[in-house]
Amino acid sequence: MDGKFSIAWHATRVDRNGSTGLARTYSHVRVTMKGWVKCTIYIRKPLHTLVEINTSEVESNLDGLRPKLIPIPLIKKRFTVPIKQLFGHLFDRVQSGRKIPQVIQVTRTQLPSVPAFAITTYKAQGLTMNKILVDLQVPPGALQVASIYVPLSRVKKEDDIVILRPFDMKVLQVQPSSVQDAELKRLDDLDKKDKTRVCLFHFFEHV
């Protein structure tokens, strides 16, 4: 099934972690076991998925694949889960003398990708997107200029952006902080000084 996915990890360094691509297809093996009843829903264990990553820096095609189509393999991770920390209140109800492990080992095998249906403003910084749906209803707390500017400036044309739901127009009137004002003034002063130096340079060059 097609869908947009964010790559969490990749074994071959064809692109950076967190890259977004379009999942084109995936391969799987059918897991069966003797003794299962006829109405059993069979588990299909994925082998890999093929993701189209337009920002990939791969210069040549991988064997049998068109450009920008990258295979993302399964990864296996092992980690511990502190049972007592999570279910400490249940330990007291277990009969004394019964040994219960306080930590268990868990092995997880999965494709290192997650659906990229929605991303945060922080994650969207620096990205240029084709079409986006933006939610301008902001959570409680201090509102930063970037909280609105960043999502609204991710596309090249206004036709490529849709506002999800009604919002308070005040979010479009957020003023820069004193620190931001000071930085803007500093950059403006530097710009004026540079222009003055360039003018003087050209003046003395022709004297």
Q: What can you see in these coordinates?
A:
InterPro entries: P-loop_NTPase. There is one protein chain. This protein is an alpha+beta fold and 207 residues long. The chain folds into 2 domains: 113 residues, no CATH class; 85 residues, no CATH class. The protein is built from 4 helices and 9 strands; from the N terminus they run βββββαββαβαβα. The strands form 3 sheets. It has a 5-stranded antiparallel sheet, with no helix packed on it. Strands 5-6 form a two-stranded antiparallel ribbon. Strand 8, helix 3 and strand 9 form a beta-alpha-beta unit. It starts with a strand and ends with a helix. The relative contact order is 0.11. About 3% of the residues have low confidence.
What's the arrangement of secondary structure elements?
Blueprint: E1 3-7, E2 20-31, E3 43-52, E4 69-73, E5 75-82, H1 83-91, E6 103-110, E7 113-115, H2 121-124, E8 132-134, H3 145-152, E9 161-163, H4 178-205
Parallel strand pairs: 8-9
Antiparallel strand pairs: 1-2, 1-7, 2-3, 3-4, 5-6
InterPro entries: P-loop_NTPase
Q: List the secondary-structure elements in sequence, H or E.
A: EEEEEHEEHEHEH
For the record, the count of structural domains works out to 2
Bulk shape:
extended
Low-confidence stretches: 9-15
Termini separation comes to 71 Å
Report Rg. 27 Å
On the 0 to 100 scale, the average pLDDT is: 76
**In what range is the share of β-strand residues?**
25-35%
Could you give the count of β-strands? 9
What structural class should be given to the helix and strand makeup?
alpha+beta
